[in-house]
Fold each of these.
Amino acid sequence: MRAIIIDDERLARTELKKMLQEFPEVEIVDEATNADEGIAKIEKQQPDIIFLDIQMPGKTGFEMLAQLDKTPQVIFTTAYDEFALKAFEVNALDYLLKPIEPKRLSDAIHKLTASEHKEIRTEGEYVNNSILSENDQVFVKDGERCWFVKLSDIRLFESVGNYAKVFFGTNKPLILKSLNALEERLDEKVFFRANRKHIINLRMIEKIEPYFNGGLLLELKGGEKIEVSRRQTVKFKEMMSL
């Protein structure tokens, strides 16, 4: 597993690298001293895992994650335990409090090797505009709340001006992405542009009803009712063999 350490403290990076020598399954491919450098190196190296400090000069670790289109697994490493709750809110793989204890690091690595998350590579290079599979995780930040969300758990994207509302579970955060930009990145076998304002997860459809003007009305598992435009109804029926 390819890893990058992102921490502004040189001694902390050196100590963690030394501790990780005990785990041959983890290969340190790079390190970064701040969020901007971290983003560049993640895009270049496309690691499986990042060991990420939260409090750094400039951007925090959370702010760095919010800028990534595609997020690797994350293990937070920090001296600030007040961030623990927030770290788990974003569903990080683990949270290590500095100074890191060998036993806690070992537990985190075991979680990592047991994880089913797999990154997609193209000849070892990071492709920023690659299609995201339904098993990929995306980082969603809305105000102070942060989430890692598996795309398969998102049932609906709704256009709100230059933003998109993301529907998963009981959450509906806004992200600064247009529906057109999202459509380019999403797998069309799973996500379907129902109309000008909505992209739906085809696996989340609960009910299909005829609608006026030859369109369709879809009810999703969250209870949302979405109209399929007449033009898109033709495509939808072909896809679903209706």
Note: The first strand starts at residue 2 and ends at 6.
Amino acid sequence: MNLNKYKLLAGDASLRKFYRSSQNSIIVYSKKNKYLNLAIYDAINSCLIKNGIKAPKLKKEFYDKNYIEIEDLGNETIFKILKKNRNKIKIYSNVIKILQLIQKIRAKNLVTFKTNKYKIPQYTKAKVLSEANLFLEWYLPKVIKKSKVNKAKKEIKNSFRNLLNKLKLRKKVFVHRDFHVSNMMYYKKKIYLIDSQDAVYGNIAYDLASLIDDVRFKTSEEVKNKIFKKFVKLNSSIDQYKLKNDFEILSVLRNLKIIGIFTRLAVRDKKTRYMKMIPYAWNIIEKRTSKNLIFKDLKLKLNKYFSKKLRLKKWK
């Protein structure tokens, strides 16, 4: 297939490439790890659609040629709408309703268009820890002295483990895992979810943390608190104290993971545009860790190895 005749679109942080065809469709191309990026991607989209959530529909699959064609949802993201709309809470209220629908999904086993069975994974503490460790594997060695790397890794990893052991909510729900406004398209006056292939069953606070403490879109403390309260109101049966506890732990670990991922994208994949968001990720982490004594140990370790100047560094 000659992809050069199609318009290459701005992609995400995955190994996929997206092209707009003349057939009102988007070509999703992935040669590496294509089972996840094509087959599972569509299986999760189909699961969302079956449960009343808008997602791109499959038009045709050309798996043997490393691509699929999906519905073209245009270019308008919720991110773009929020940037030019003053009534942010109304928009977020609609997003929270979608999150509630997601968390009601009970499907555990899916079938891909290749007729393979796929079991949605569990988001275990071990998995969350391995993702948080991306901060230690990629960002930490890039910014601190080589002689301090091993000691810093050991100390901070222990803090990660301690925090994970303090999570309180046990019930597992469907987790999109990258639930932020850049992964939501506004099409035909409806909100569509994209980039859903990494879905898991995990903590109910995880997607909420992705949405509220989104490194890609800056929001005020007032807006963050209002979104949280909207979620609480719709989920009054959940212990609010436990929810807040888990929300803050997962937000901090997630944003540390994001710093690691952004560094990996720059170093390994030469995708440097994400590095400019690292100072805001640090800002989110600092605000969360400064207000809750549960983070005392982690905060001491982070302050020990990462100066204020380093956190504010403008990466090229």
Note: The chain has two domains: 3-71, 78-311.
Amino acid sequence: MTTPRPSSLPAPPASTLRGALADYLSLRRALGFQLVNAGRLLGQFVSYLEQHDINTVTSEHALAWATLPTAASAHWWAIRMSAVRGFAAYLHSLDPSVQVPAAGLIGGAGPCRATPYLYSDAEIRALVQAADALRPRLRAATYQGLISLLAISGIRIGEAIALDDADLDLDRELLVVRNTKFNKHRLVPLHPSATRALTGYRHLRQHAHPRPASPALFLSGAGTRLWHSNINLTFTRLLDQVGLTRRSAACRPRIHDLRHSFAVATLLRWYRDGADIPALMPRLSTYLGHSDPQHTFWYLSAAPELMALAGERLQAHLGGAS
């Protein structure tokens, strides 16, 4: 005998799966959860179900989607599956026929951190040059501007996607990054050359789309805000064209690593200049949008050259103290 379902919790029809996702995210966010990464992943998961005409969530489909990026680590698969499990549990409360993937279905959910792929200046220039061949012209300019901005500012890819045209302050030569990872705003100063480049991009964008469908700073060829999934696909193609491949099982080139590269390059420059690193580290933390300088100190372990310079600094200090 089937237990009657409370009238206040109707099971979502298959056609409203995306609506159910919106309700789920709204509910969780009302409880204080940000769900930036989970919201993006679940949007991709629902798109996967829609593309395959799948009307409900099953463990089989969740596993197939979670392991789609075949080159990814088991840890990343586990993160994807974890996002689906939360959504599936919500749907199951509305419709008991929805399957909730078992915990531990994918191993590797423990603490894990990918080894950053530190791009050289030459590699970044090669990626920007490869983006010039993209079409239409606005798409090429968008990816050239996006990659360049990530490399010279260290902002997160999600922050770059969320930038609106009004967030570029040309008079003060800075970006206003709003509602960041920790729900804060911050100002990111820009070099005059970056301001000039973004001004040129803005003119091209306005010519291509005088009345764009989105207020975003970076637009797609269709005049809409960029999607994280599409950026990753395009960036992967650019990596292939340039010939950049993984350096180890734990180190593969990602667009997020442009942020790591910026941070490491900054620290290397400070070390070589003999700067007071502990005094400057809070500035870099604020610039990057870290909640605590200890998160920024992690970059010290990202590059052997940094560790060597840190060792030399420590040795000099100990020698002077003896």
Note: The chain has three domains: 14-94, 121-242, 257-321.
Amino acid sequence: MKVAVVGARGHIGSFLVSKLVRDGHEVFAVSRSDRKPYAYDPKIWDKVNSVFMSREELIASDFFDTVKADAVCDLVSFNVGECEAMIEKLTHGEFYVQIGSIWTYENKKYLPVDENHPKNSVEEYGKNKGIIEEYIKSLVKSGKLRGAVVHPGHISSGEWMPINPQGNLDKDVFMKIRDGQEIVLPFLGLATLHHVHSADLANVIAACAENHDKANGEAFISVAPTAMTMRAITEELFEYFGHKPNIRYVSWKDFVAEVGEQNAAVSMDHISHSPCCTAAKAEKVLGVRHEKTIMDIYKEYLNGAFLR
């Protein structure tokens, strides 16, 4: 197939382009700049048709009319308006894959969360991703589009820092665990986090593009095989560095005082929008099994970017 990947050199696109090339497809990689992709392999990227333009420039161009792709993977639209502008350019029956988020499932009615769970986020990002899914499904139902949505957990790999076991982006947390220093956790450390490795996510997106009939009109959650509690992640990381777990459990008020308001706000965002989910549908319908566990993701980072 001809596959256009919009947002081709980012966290998702870098891995998706490589997957599609390995699967034998002709790939048009659209990105704003020529920055080096994650996990760069020249043998892969030498086979890619690289196109450099912003999303706005892409929409204003005749790119889609010229390329006539079989599938378009849209990694850069974050609200219905942006999504609609992209879809309006698809006039050759392209199969459209949009990236959502498990943040669309905010108030957990049951666990594990699956694709039938109500999309009930009141936070803008998750709310918009839920609205986009309904919009795409309505277009498919009316025969105006062929497409699918993939909802990933927290996207991670060894190339950049994943959300730490406190749920924020403070690299010092990893350093403290490495050195055996005390880590504070709120809510007895029982809030869950659910990551997904970019390579596993890329496999689901590629499977949607390659299996139009099975994926059309569907949504798929893409997450690691299991979620983990903040406590379990922290304990395993201490043990990974050869230490006994050194954790102190505190109230939310004390947690904010310990880590600062900015880090605490990021933590609250992630533990509020990172429910225990299941990717069983992707495996059943598309045959894609998520291989990387959450600890695999952390260890890959700790053996890679963390050391640089």
Note: The first strand starts at residue 2 and ends at 6.
